[in-house]
Amino acid sequence: MTTEMEGLTDIATGALAAHAVDRRKAGHTSGDHETGLCLNCQTELSGPYCHACGQSAHTHRTLLGFGHDILHGVFHFEGRVWHTIPMLVMRPGELTRRYINGERVRFISPVALFLFMVFLTFAVLNFGPSADVNAKLDTAALNTKIADTEAQRQTLESSRKALIAKGQPTEAVDAQLSVNTKALDTLRSAHMADHGAPTKEMLDQVHTDIEPLNKVLHKLAENPSLFFYKLQSSAYKFLWLLIPISLPFIWLMFAWRKDVALYDHAVFATYSLSAMMLLMVVLHLLSLAGVPDAIYGWTLVLLPPFHMYRQLRGTYGVSRFGGLWRVAFLLVSAGVSSLIFALLLIEMLMAH
Q1: By CB count within 10 A, which of 109, 192, 209, 257 is most buried?
Q2: Per-residue pLDDT for 207 more than 60?
Q3: Is 109 left (phi over 0), alpha (psi -120 to 50) or beta?
Q4: Which span out of 14-28, 56-70, 134-148, 257-271 was modeled with the highest average pLDDT?
């Protein structure tokens, strides 16, 4: 229940934050305060909004008005959400192009939509089965089996060395080692499936020639739950880094075109990332509703490239072939961008 309440709080917070970022004018007016001086900059008013600073002529100092601001920010989003989301799903290229061309009042800005989708995504992911379910599993028994199987393996390896030293055949011991290896792999896989992380004993046995990677593995081995919690919290706060990280890759696809600017690419990237987060939200809700994994998997594989193709063609006016090769390039660059983002997050975690 706690995670569900946290999720609802995140959604409300995201709506309020995005509303604050996106709105152009501070509130509504009834027309009764269109004369006099602006309370913000003292400019003489000639209408419902100050022509100098944009503040509404009408301001309130009532608790009811404060509550209205909260409800308006959470549930209304100035009505533009109902214009923006359907176009983001069905006609992403047209939405991106129209926003770039200056149609701003009708649509939610890319930054506001991205901010709201970040809150919404992490909030929705809190619904459904949580780590509390895993706590009910018999972890002690599983760890005991892993330890016993590892001890058996050491005994078998010692027996094999002794047979080799005596010049005797090792076929029987080799067969037992093969069975032991399969059993150990099965138990370790079960532990990873239950807890989402390898055991400390497993990680302690891993050592690479890359010292930063060894530090990460050591942190993971110390407290896997805390490590992944910090990783998720950092992703929640710094997901916006994906926008500047992806910009150089998008620029490369249109480096020879003089009619597009980095601003266009930033709008494209931000709307695209918002669409991908919306897809994650929908798929997670469908999985909770019992949709088969096959449908979930194929949707995750096929829909993002199709959406990228539609958005590329509508935004930049490229040909079908131009859209196809750019989709392939975007998919590769998305993987590289995600890897860079993950490395930055890990680096920030290690710095603290």
Answers
A1: 109
A2: no
A3: beta
A4: 257-271
3-class SS at 44? strand
The pair of structure tokens assigned to 127 is 């619904």
| Mean pLDDT to the nearest integer, 116-138 | 64
Q: What is the pTM of this model?
A: 0.64
Question: Could you give the CA distance from residue 277 to residue 315 in angstroms, rounded to a whole number?
Answer: 20
Neighbour tally for 328: CB within 10 Å:
12
Mean pLDDT of the chain: 76
- Choose between 280 and 207: higher pLDDT: 280
- Least Cα distance to 337 among 277, 232, 248, 231 occurs for 248
| Rounded Cα–Cα distance for residues 116 and 293 (Å) | 27
Angle at which helix 92-100 crosses helix 81-90, to 10 degrees, equals 120
Mean pLDDT of 186-195: 62
Cα distance between residue 137 and residue 161, in whole Å: 38
Residue 121, number of CB atoms within 10 A of its CB = 22
- Residues contacting residue 71 through CB under 8 Å, at least 6 positions apart: none
Count other Cβ atoms within 10 Å, centred on residue 100.
Answer: 20
Cβ–Cβ < 8 Å for 271, 256: no
What gap in Å lies between CA 28 and CA 57, rounded to an integer?
8
Give the model's pLDDT for residue 27: 41
Which range has the top average pLDDT, 32-46, 145-159, 199-213, 274-288? 274-288
The two three-digit tokens of residue 249, written as one number: 């890759």
Helix (H, G, I), strand (E, B) or coil at 249: helix
Distance in Å from the first CA to the final CA of the chain = 31
Q: Which of 112, 134, 123 shows the shortest CA–CA distance to 284? A: 123
Give the model's pLDDT for residue 5: 47
- Rounded to 5 degrees, φ, ψ at 125 are -65, -15
The pLDDT value recorded for residue 144 is 76
Q: Which residue has the tokens 């980095």?
A: 262
Distant-in-sequence, close-in-space partners of 212: CB < 8 Å, separation ≥ 6: 347, 350
